[in-house]
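Supplementary Methods, section 5.1.

A reviewer requested that the exact input to the structure prediction be made available. We therefore reproduce it here, unchanged from the version used in the analyses.
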Amino acid sequence: MKARIYKSTGSWYVAKAETGKMYNARIKGVFKIGGLTSTNPIAVGDEVDMQIEDVLEESAMIDTICDRKNYVARVSPHNKHQHHIIAANLDQSLLFATLKDPKTSQGFIDRFLISCEAYHIPAIIVFNKSDLYKQKELDHFAHLQKIYSSIGYQVMLCSVEKNSGVAEIAALLEGKTTLLSGHSGVGKSTFINSVFPSLELRTQEVSGWSGKGMHTTTFAEMFDLPTSGAIIDTPGIRELGLVDISKQELAHYFPEMRAQMSSCHFNNCMHIEEPGCAVKRALEEGKIAADRYVSYLNILTTMDAAH
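The structure derived from this sequence is encoded token-by-token as follows.
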């Protein structure tokens, strides 16, 4: 029987069969998928084949994972040499960010976008908590919106608390499988509750002493939307370690750099000190935002540190 994974707890999975019935499922033996060393061989969103073991107990055994259209992975929080697949078979991703309480760094946003670019997943950036923003934050939002819109990303502003801009974001989810991500405390679960109250997700306040959100979602989980489509809610991510991306490839995942690279003097140009670098020239001409170039250099430096 074909099924789709809705929840993964590490050892057990919740799978929805094509009949619409939910089963608790286990995996048979050890899965190695395409040589990928992952802490979780099966991820939320995966399509699988399974055998029903006990109809009354609603239990099943997964014996095959179907080929993935795409997936988003990060470095495992527990082992930097292993991957953790966040979700698979996505139509788009939606990153919740905030400019205040807690503040999402541009470096985190850029890492998330790189992960999506690497796996060909369209990404939308939603800045929440606009009701808390004073002129300084609004100016900063306008600056970020200009940068990201100019390179092809959709950028939105909302206040889930005041129900401002929420309907427009909900409309983007129709008929698609969307990964919702972001730091803890950015209002992801509050957004889901406001748009789909029947899901009754737990939310938690940002912790006062650290300014960081408290973790409430411990495993990724998929929910069907009332009309059509599904959302995958993920645990709040503190850091996003990139996987399977070499230093030489990194610039390819910055769309504005990718557009210039073919004009570089050297085909293995790293866009740092090399003569005849088209990326550096575009930076000087204002075609590439300085903030994004700084992000690129910072990520390269962390890649040096990791090896």
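The chain has seven helices and 13 strands. These observations are discussed further in the main text.
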